[in-house]
Specification:
heterodimer, A: alpha+beta, 10 helices, 8 strands, B: twelve-stranded mixed beta sheet, three-stranded mixed beta sheet, 17 strands, 32% helix
């Protein structure tokens, strides 16, 4: 059987990483117009949530709302209509630590809120509640390959279901002692609005094929460190091309020995 | 969607290991639930624990994966000849062309819970023999399975709580339809752990008795564990009697983290999407395996959605009174239950259910009975409002 190409058009981008609070900043840095300065990630208060929920929102909830809403706004999309694919290498690390610590002690009566926030799809659940989106919502984990796995499934939905899909790839940190076992340094995430048809809003088309070639690296040492330190940032070579408005092909780290090559055609 | 072949499948739960144990338990109306005696857990509840999981020995080269969840994964893979069928598919298609799509809710988090009890007394560090990536991480069962078979293609874990291993069928079906892979190992594995046992208890969602789905007096779930797998392939001319995946439907409640939409709106959207995907009408469905967790809210909401779509014309049951709620494995376990219903011409009943809730007007089967099933629908709904319905059928 001839494979159908995994192709989509990108209409919107959201971004948040250490020292890079949004896509305009990341774009300027990736274009070389602004120097990269590493600094702790800054999470905006999610205005979409009611005040009480806003105060209680965890870091992963704030992160996914930030990058998802930025991408949707960039695309001019109605968030209530978007199918979503969330992909993350782990869930809420602070919540997980608190649960494991309590369950190791004498009093195991954990808080119900902590429990429902422990599921891998907690951020996706809050996204649905905040946006009212009843469309399919996928939640994936593939450890360091989570961005690639999310991209593959999102493109599948775009190509087959002809459904505009928002991919939100994100990661967050664990506190010690889990941090020593899984040293993700900070929160970071990417949102991409992917459409099946080209429109006047399209920024570029992407076509993904499996390869075994090594991943593209970033020449800036600090950005290259970011690429390898946080799984969602494996997408940085693709985002650099999008920032520059350049066509061509980049290879992204996926699941060894399988890599993902992305052919980019700017609109 | 184009129908896909389940060329092999297997299920292991508290009912027993493999298809024969599962089918004879379902026929007998037997429940595998027993009072909680798991680990150091002190809760007044019933569990569906799988026997002999911790006797399973992983290959030495994969020792870093050792944890209860991967022991059950291996046990499930090595049941009903499933692993051999996978190896045949790999020989046929190549090791980059067989994908892995597995659902789980908590993977091997039990390993971390245990590791937290024996942290370094001075530094608080976790010990060197604790391996986060290969046990705790949600991907661990998929990566273990990929390595177990020496695969080199795509793999993902889907973790949407209790709909996880239904949604893997939809994700794998997309890639098979696109032609990016030629076969997919799909399924789900979840094992007992303190997080879910104390967590559901904290939400007052666990029953002190064996669960009673759709009963007027139902008052909570019985947590179970399980491993269920299917090998999915495209098919041009399936042999008569082969089990096919005909449709998949996914939706979101957009309502609450741990309670379903009270009118079952998201559930209804998922069932409608599955029917649309299969090109079928409600009259084409012969049996529904309900999510039927036995919480007051779930069964009321799901019952409303099923009643609105199917009325009282389609026999339905939840088999969680037999298996317990296997959480992230439930979608795959109950898909296999549907495959058995089709193959055997037997509609399973609902052990534990005594007096049906008069507020829910569906054709609920307390007792199993013989009957022809050509197409079956199964529902799986999870925390965060994640819904998935699948439709299975049989090749003529």
């Amino acid at each position: 059987m001839n494979a159908k190409p995994l192709t989509a058009w990108i209409e919107g981008i959201g971004f948040l990483a250490p020292g890079l609070p949004d896509w305009p900043t990341a774009r300027a840095v990736l274009r070389g117009e602004q120097a990269y300065e590493n600094a702790p990630s800054v999470l905006p208060a999610p205005a979409i949530l009611p005040p009480a929920e806003r105060r209680r929102a965890s870091r992963v909830v704030k992160l996914t709302l930030a990058v998802g809403l930025e991408a949707a706004a960039h695309a001019g999309s109605d968030v209530a209509q978007l199918a979503t694919v969330f992909s993350a290498s782990g869930a809420d690390g602070h919540n997980c630590h608190a649960l494991c610590e309590q369950l190791a002690g004498e009093d195991r009566q954990i808080s119900p809120t902590r429990f429902h926030n422990s599921v891998h799809n907690a951020a996706a659940g809050y996204w649905g509640i905040a946006t009212g989106a009843m469309a399919p919502c996928q939640v994936i984990c593939a450890y360091d390959a989570s961005f690639g796995a999310g991209l593959i499934d999102a493109l599948g939905q775009v190509v087959l279901d002809r459904q505009t899909t928002l991919l939100i790839a994100y990661d967050s940190e664990y506190p010690e002692p889990l941090f020593a076992k899984r040293p993700v340094p900070d929160v970071a995430g990417i949102g991409l609005v992917l459409t099946p048809e080209r429109s006047e809003r399209s920024l570029a088309s992407i076509t993904v094929t499996p390869e075994t070639t090594p991943a593209d690296r970033l020449t800036d040492g600090a950005l290259e460190t970011l690429r390898t330190a946080i799984p969602a940032m494996r997408a940085l070579p693709l985002l650099r091309k999008l920032a520059l408005g350049e066509g061509g092909t980049v290879c992204l780290d996926y699941l060894p020995p399988m890599q993902l090559c992305v052919a980019i055609q700017p609109c | 969607m184009t129908p896909l072949l389940l060329s092999a499948y297997t299920a292991t739960t508290c009912l027993g290991r493999g298809l024969d144990a599962t089918r004879s338990a379902l026929r007998a109306g037997y429940s595998g639930l027993a009072p909680c005696a798991f680990e150091t857990v002190q809760l007044d509840t019933w569990l569906g624990e799988v026997a002999h999981v911790d006797d399973e020995k992983l290959p030495a080269a994969l020792a870093a994966y050792d944890c209860r969840n991967n022991r059950l994964t291996q046990m499930g893979l090595e049941t009903d000849g499933f692993a051999d069928r996978v190896r045949e598919a790999i020989a046929r298609y190549g090791k980059t062309r067989v994908g892995v799509f597995l659902g789980t809710s908590t993977a091997g988090i039990l390993q971390t819970e245990l590791a937290y009890r024996r942290r370094d007394a001075e530094t608080g560090a976790l010990l060197d023999d604790f391996h986060y990536r290969t046990t705790h991480n949600s991907f661990s069962l998929a990566e273990f399975t990929r390595d177990y078979f020496g695969l080199e293609g795509m793999a993902m874990a889907i973790s949407t709580a209790c709909s996880s291993s239904a949604k893997v069928f939809a994700a794998a079906a997309r890639q098979l339809e696109l032609g990016t892979i030629d076969a997919a190992i799909v399924g789900g594995v979840d094992t007992l752990c303190l997080t879910t046992l104390y967590g559901f208890a904290s939400l007052q969602l666990t029953s002190t008795q064996p669960c009673r789905p759709y009963d007027a007096e139902r008052n909570g779930i019985s947590i179970g564990e399980g491993a269920a797998f299917a090998l999915l392939e495209r098919t041009d001319a399936p042999a008569a009697g082969s089990i096919l995946l005909l449709g998949t439907g996914e939706s979101s409640d957009a309502y609450h983290m741990s309670s379903p939409h009270p009118e079952g709106l998201g559930a209804r959207l998922a069932m409608e999407a599955a029917l649309r995907s299969a090109g079928l009408n409600t009259a084409d469905i012969d049996y529904i395996n309900l999510h039927g967790t036995s919480t007051p809210a779930n069964d009321a909401a799901e019952g409303k959605a099923v009643a609105a779509l199917f009325g009282t014309t389609v026999p339905c049951s939840s088999t969680k009174g037999a298996t317990g709620h296997t959480l992230g494995a439930a979608g795959a376990v109950e898909t296999i239950v549907c495959a058995l219903a089709i193959t055997d011409g037997f509609l399973p009943g609902s052990p534990g259910t005594q007096n049906l809730d008069p507020a829910i007007s569906v054709d609920y089967l307390k007792q199993g009975r013989a009957g022809s099933v050509r197409r079956a629908l199964t529902n799986s709904f999870g925390f965060g409002g994640s819904n998935c319905s699948l439709i299975l059928g049989v090749a003529a």
